[in-house]
Design brief:
mainly alpha, signal
């Protein structure tokens, strides 16, 4: 996109320079507009303005740069001085606009993106940055080993004075100086001989060189640091200049020097490059092939990306192996630790996931999503106090200089919301409300707040502030009418507070229709029916929950208690025994089993269940009371 708009700007300028300024002002304005669009597409697009000035001086106004004193005179003659003036003013204005958009700061990036930029040794930085243009030039001449991502493993830092890399750098810069000197010398001699045709050829070659060099300058690290060491994408526009030079050179060799063998060699070279392009297209066919192709040059980044692809395809073992291999190459990659943590968390390997999230935070302390997932994982282990500390510490992480402040803000909102949830579950309702309100205050515009509104409704309901509770339940449903948790909690509110059973029934059924496999919906609906003494309907709902999740503890417990309420002790015992099979060492489950045996007159079984429960919970008052009652019966 940037290259296309870049060329459009250049073409419009060529059209605009065909005559005096006032006659072609439309083409000139189009050129300026396209230069602005090119910059917004990619930063190096702005360099088209510099190329337009070079084009004006060399080709349009035919200035003799070997005689700098006559350059302005030539520009005035052709009207080029006005165009150059406007180009300069426009360049300054566009650069100023760019800095305004970036809030007068340069983009920040991690050490792994450009390690030379953060190296404390000035000589290391100098040698490395002087060598990088040679690497890019080498890729243009010999694009055999390519990679979608050139990481720090591909081009190591140059820390020694005497090395082949520095030799290559020196030879490249000496060659460039020699070309410029040779151009100026030949230009001067040709003008003396009045050989304008050869002058034009030299001008075209220098212009081709300018197309190679000028668009590359923003990515060269010479003016400001960028977030990469080598990127093939930044060579797309410079390659236009390379092709320009190649074609001009081929024209000279074939048509001027009469050496057609160069044309045959070009055909062979084109076929070789076509084959290489075909092979690269195969690599780019899908993500897995692409990342596997980069394992040689950029193993750490490629194994990370490969792990992401494999994980998305549910190849979790291979994905885990890829992540761990990436960490062997570079152990300080926060993204790799984080993605490995997600994989382990999804597999319920919570302790390993916690370690991975902590490592991610260690290497990138402001990675809000790692703090969020660490807290959520701790919640999964019922370590709520530890999770709360994590959320409290991470709730005000700065977004200064982050690449994606929007996602950072979303993660902070989730963090505050989850802190509120923990406090609500710990019965610290007032503090929970504060956290929910903080989440609302700091949420970005694209955040969907129905979950926060729903929790605020539950919190106010817990404080018996039912008007406020209803306001937030309705607010949640107003924002997202198909939000199942809000439908369920509002339906509960309608049953327990408003006593509007008909409306509650509608909300329950809507929630079940929207998510028919959600066990919680049937359980809440079942409890609501029990509160209305609709036992048969409640049993139907809860047995549906058991069809979805056959060994669900809550469903078994509620069904058993309903049958017990109906004095159907055989069925109550049937479901209680299933529950006790799951929770064999749970004092409450053993107490309830003992109570059922007690009611059924199976006193020996009751005594055994009570005894087992007593070992686990010797101070339970209900258990002790039931044991006393049983002892009275056995004495009689």
């Amino acid at each position: 996109g940037a290259a296309l708009i870049f060329l459009l700007s250049l073409i419009c300028y060529i059209k605009a320079s065909n005559g005096y300024f006032s006659k072609n002002i439309l083409w000139f304005c189009l050129s300026l507009l396209f230069s602005l669009l090119a910059m917004f597409t990619k930063e190096q697009g702005i360099t088209v303005l510099g190329l337009c000035i070079v084009l004006e001086i060399l080709i349009v106004s035919k200035c003799n740069i070997a005689q700098p004193s006559k350059v302005f005179e030539n520009l005035r003659t052709s009207g080029g001085h006005i165009r150059c003036l406007f180009l300069t003013i426009w360049s300054v204005a566009v650069l100023y606009l760019r800095f305004l958009i970036m809030q007068n700061t340069l983009p920040e990036f991690s050490n792994s993106d450009n390690p030379a930029a953060n190296d404390p040794n000035i000589l290391t930085r100098f040698f490395t940055f002087m060598y990088l243009p040679f690497c890019n030039l080498y890729l243009l001449f010999f694009p055999w080993q390519l990679s979608y991502d050139w990481s720090i493993e591909a081009i190591p830092l140059i820390e020694k004075l005497v090395c082949w890399e520095n030799v290559c750098s020196i030879l490249m810069y000496l060659s460039l100086i020699y070309i410029l000197w040779f151009y100026l010398r030949c230009f001067h001699l040709l003008l003396k001989n009045k050989n304008n045709q050869n002058v034009n050829i030299f001008d075209l070659m220098i212009f081709g060189l300018a197309v190679m060099i000028i668009p590359f300058l923003p990515a060269s690290n010479l003016f400001f640091y960028v977030g990469f060491i080598v990127a093939e994408r930044v060579l797309y526009i410079p390659s236009i200049g390379f092709c320009f030079l190649f074609v001009n050179g081929l024209y000279l060799m074939v048509h001027v020097k009469k050496q057609p063998r160069w044309l045959y060699a070009t055909v062979v070279l084109s076929l070789i490059f076509a084959l290489q392009t075909y092979q690269r297209n195969i690599a780019w066919k899908d993500e897995e092939n692409l990342y596997r192709s980069g394992l040689v040059l950029s193993p750490a980044k490629s194994y990370l990306n490969l792990g992401n692809v494999l994980n998305a395809r549910n190849k979790t073992k291979e994905a885990e192996q890829a992540y761990r291999t990436a960490l062997k190459f570079r152990s300080n990659m926060a993204d790799t630790h984080y993605n490995l943590g997600i994989l382990l968390q999804n597999e319920r390997r919570y302790k390993e996931a916690i370690y991975s999230y902590k490592e991610a935070i260690k290497y990138r302390p402001r990675l809000a999503t790692a703090h969020l997932n660490l807290g959520v994982t701790l919640m999964s282990l019922n370590l709520n106090h530890d999770a709360l500390k994590v959320f409290q510490n991470a709730s005000n992480l700065s977004d200064h200089g982050l690449k994606d402040p929007g996602n950072h803000a979303i993660s902070l909102t989730h963090i505050r919301y989850n802190a509120g949830r923990i406090l609500f579950n710990l019965r610290n309702t007032q503090d929970a409300i504060k956290w929910f309100n903080e989440a609302l205050a700091g949420m970005p515009d694209n955040y969907e707040p129905q979950s926060i509104f729903n929790m605020l409704g539950q919190a106010y309901s817990d404080l018996k502030k039912y008007k406020e509770a209803e306001y937030y339940f309705l607010k949640a449903l107003e924002f997202k009418g198909d939000h199942v948790p809000a439908l369920l909690t509002y339906a509960q509110h309608l049953v327990s507070v408003v006593k509007d059973y008909t409306k509650a029934e509608q909300h329950f059924k809507k929630a079940i229709f929207l998510d028919p496999d959600r066990v919680e919906s049937y359980q809440i609906y079942g409890r609501a029916l029990v509160s209305q003494s609709k036992f048969d309907e409640a049993l139907l709902a809860l047995k549906k929950a058991l069809q979805i999740l056959p060994r669900d503890e809550d469903s078994l417990s509620i069904i058993s208690s309903i049958y017990r309420e109906m004095k159907d002790y055989e069925n109550a015992l049937y479901y209680q025994l299933q529950l006790n099979d799951i929770k064999s060492n749970d004092a409450i489950a053993l107490l309830n089993l003992g109570a059922l045996y007690h009611l059924m007159g199976r006193l020996k079984d009751a005594k055994k269940s009570y005894a087992d429960a007593l070992k686990l919970d010797p101070t339970n008052p209900i258990l002790l009371e039931n044991i006393k009652k049983l002892e009275k019966i056995t004495r009689v």
